[in-house]
């Protein structure tokens, strides 16, 4: 069974790092064979918005953010890992591994 991860990326200015973090997470998830959907909360608003169904099927949520997540209440009851937006750019494998460990160790 494929692992299912959802994520939100957002930086303070909502430009480069938001999208760089999303790309890094997508690339790593694809390499590992995981299903991943990333919502970006950038300067132009929310792109690739996570649906209610996405929120239900995601095993864990990664918040790679340097600002407040919009509509965070959608993720109530989910295990989540919050890291700076630069973390997945530097080491997406560690971020995803740490997030899945939250689910696997409980």
Automatic annotation (TrEMBL):
Residues 5-101 form the PTS EIIB type-2 domain. Residues 1-21 form the signal peptide. Pfam families: PTS_IIB. The keyword DNA-binding does not apply. CDD domains: PTS_IIB_fructose. It comes from the Bacteria. It is an enzyme of class 2 (transferase). GO terms for molecular function: transferase activity. Keywords: Kinase, Phosphoprotein, Phosphotransferase system, Signal, Sugar transport, Transferase, Transport. Its EC number is 2.7.1.202. This is Fructose PTS transporter subunit IIB.
